[in-house]
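Internal tracking record. Fields below are filled automatically when a chain is submitted to the structure queue. Please do not edit lines marked as system-generated. If the sequence contains nonstandard residues, flag them in the REMARKS field before resubmitting.
Queue: standard
Priority: normal
Entity type: single polypeptide chain
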Amino acid sequence: EVQLQASGGGLVQAGGSLRLSCAAYGFTFDDYAIGWFRQAPGKEREGVSAIGSDGGSTYYAESMKGRFTISRDNAKNTLYLQMNSLKSEDTAVYYCARAVLGSEFDYWGQGTLVTVSS
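SYSTEM-GENERATED OUTPUT FOLLOWS
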């Protein structure tokens, strides 16, 4: 069974840092690109970042560039998102998802809540 389990969220003050993790199970992790998404209260889900299957290519949404770093450890079947210089507008539930056929995502983790206090 394919599973993605996001963790690492919490409460942090503005300007602080958090590292999210996404553990993958039930599929060959290094065959797939993986992405991070987020959904803030009352807002639509938005793409945050994505990384190629071998970690060689990355994508960031404009507002995350220079603050967030995506990485993966294929030996541990785990995806990471290092978030620095957090802002109150980064408050959201963060999800990881497996990419198929380019920009489509077929399996989603349960989400981890990040709350940034100002």
